[in-house]
Specification:
single chain, 2 domains, alpha/beta, Rossmann fold, about 25% strand, 6-stranded parallel sheet, 13 helices, about 400 residues
C-alpha cells in the first residue's frame, strides 16, 4: 500500500470560464504538493479570470490554452494530454462547457481532449443558481451521468453574483475524496466496516465532565481510508472537531453508554469492527442537574464502571467477523497488547505508544504495534492515514482467510 494515493498519478485539470477558477488554483497546488503530475487545460474564457502563469507556477508544468501550439510537441495535444491521464477533472464546469460535453461538441482544446480521453472524467459544476436549476442544464447533467461522467454536485451558498442557492463550486475536501477513491484499489468493496473514534465525555454537571486527550484522528483516518477502498463505513464518534470523511455515515455520541448502545446496534451487520475510540472506563456516580458551586463539590469523587464495549463485542463476535481493538499504553506495550487480545477475543489489537511526543494522542503521526494470534509487528512511523491503510491491509489478510 502506497503512502500517498496521488503520488505519481497523472491528473488533468480542465478549467473553464468562471469566477470559481481562482479556487481551483488551490486544488492544483494541493495535488502538486501530494506529488501528482498535474496538467492544466484552460479555455480562452478561463484565462480572463486566472492567468495561465498562475497555474503553471502551481503545477510546475506548462499550461495548455489552445488547439494549435507553437511547437511540434503540441500538434497532437488534444489527443496526448487525455490519453495518458489517470483522471480528468473539469472544474469549474460552466453551463456552457457542460452543454458542449453533453452534445459531443469539440470546438476547443478542452472539449476535444475530453472526447479523446478514455480516462474517468469528473465534472464539477459552478454557476449562478438560476443557470444551474434551468431544465436545459439539468438535462445536460443527466446526459453526462448517462454517458459515464462523474458529476460532483455543487454546494449551496452565497455566490459572486450575490444570489444564494445551489451552484457554488464543490468544496475541495469532498472533491479530493472522490478522486482518491477513484485512484484507490477497491479491495474492501462489499464489506461493512464499523469504526469508533474520539473520546467520550462523562458529565459531572452541565459545565464539567471527565474525558481524555483523544482527538479522534486515528479513527477518522481509518474511516477515510476504508471508504476510499470501497467499504461501506459507519463511524461512531465521540466529541471531535474533525470533519466526517466524504462518503462515511456518521453517528455522534457523548458518553460511554451512548457509544455502547450505538455500537451494539450496528455490530451485528458489520463485517469488520475497529474500536479506535478512547472510551472512559468510569463515570461519576452522581450527575448534577445544575452547575455545582466549587465550595459544594466533594473532594472525593465517587465513580462507577462504564460498560466494556470491546469485551462485549468479543463475546458477541460472529463467525467470519473481524474484531480489531486499540490500546493506548505507555509501558509494556507487547505484554498489555497480548493480554487484551486474548481477554477480549480480538483478531487484532493496535497498540499506541503514548509515552512520546510524536505518536499517540493529538498528533498527525503514529507508530502502531499490531498484535495477532500469529505474532507481533511494529508498523513504520508515518501519518495516521497511512497507518490506517497499513492496518487495513492486515485486516484484509484476515478477511481472506475467514469462511
Amino acid at each position: 500500500m502506497v503512502q500517498n494515493v496521488f503520488a505519481g498519478k497523472k491528473i488533468v485539470i480542465g478549467v473553464s470560464g468562471s469566477i470559481a477558477a481562482f479556487k481551483v488554483a488551490g486544488w492544483v497546488s494541493d495535488l502538486a504538493k501530494e506529488e501528482a503530475i498535474v496538467s492544466v487545460v484552460m479555455t480562452s474564457s478561463a484565462t480572463e479570470f486566472v492567468t495561465p502563469l498562475t497555474f503553471a507556477a502551481l503545477s510546475g508544468n506548462g499550461v495548455h490554452t489552445g488547439m494549435f501550439g507553437r511547437g511540434k510537441e503540441d500538434a497532437m495535444a488534444h489527443i496526448s494530454i487525455g490519453r495518458d491521464a489517470d483522471l480528468v477533472v473539469i472544474a469549474p464546469a460552466t453551463a456552457n462547457i457542460i452543454a458542449k460535453l453533453a452534445g459531443g461538441i469539440a470546438d476547443d482544446l478542452l472539449t476535444t481532449m475530453v472526447l479523446a480521453t478514455r480516462s474517468k472524467v469528473f465534472v464539477c459544476p459552478a454557476m449562478n443558481v438560476r443557470m444551474y436549476s434551468h431544465p436545459a442544464t439539468q438535462k445536460n447533467l443527466k446526459i453526462l451521468k448517462d454517458l459515464g461522467y462523474k458529476v460532483i454536485d455543487p454546494a449551496c451558498g452565497k455566490m459572486a453574483c450575490k444570489e444564494e442557492g445551489e451552484g457554488r463550486l464543490a468544496e475541495w475536501d469532498g472533491v479530493r475524496e472522490h478522486l482518491a477513491q477513484s485512484l484507490s484499489f477497491q479491495d474492501l468493496q462489499g464489506f461493512k466496516i464499523l469504526v469508533t473514534a474520539g473520546p467520550t465525555r462523562e458529565p459531572l454537571d452541565p459545565a464539567r465532565f471527565l474525558s481524555n486527550r483523544s482527538s479522534g484522528k486515528m479513527g477518522y483516518a481509518l474511516a477515510q481510508a476504508a471508504c476510499r477502498r470501497g467499504a461501506e463505513v459507519t463511524l461512531i464518534s465521540g466529541p471531535s472537531a474533525l470533519t466526517c470523511p466524504q462518503g462515511v455515515t456518521l453517528f455522534k455520541v457523548q458518553t460511554a453508554q451512548e457509544m455502547n448502545d450505538a455500537v451494539l446496534a450496528h455490530a451485528a451487520n458489520s463485517s469488520v469492527i475497529i474500536k479506535a475510540a478512547a472510551v472512559a472506563d468510569y463515570r461519576p456516580e452522581t450527575v448534577y442537574v445544575h452547575k455545582m458551586k466549587k465550595e459544594k463539590i466533594a473532594r472525593e469523587l465517587v465513580l462507577t464502571r462504564n460498560p466494556d464495549i470491546l469485551l462485549e463485542l468479543g463475546k458477541r463476535k460472529k463467525a467470519g467477523q473481524i474484531l480489531v481493538g486499540f490500546a493506548a499504553e505507555s509501558t509494556n506495550l507487547l505484554e498489555e497488547g497480548r493480554r487484551k487480545l486474548l481477554a477480549k477475543n480480538l483478531d487484532l489489537i493496535a497498540v499506541n505508544d503514548i509515552s512520546g511526543d510524536t505518536t499517540g494522542f493529538e498528533v498527525e503521526f503514529n507508530q502502531i504495534l499490531v498484535i495477532s494470534a500469529s505474532g507481533a509487528e511494529t508498523l513504520p512511523h508515518t501519518t495516521k492515514l497511512h497507518s490506517a491503510d497499513l492496518l487495513l491491509d492486515r485486516v484484509l489478510q484476515l478477511l481472506s482467510k475467514k469462511p
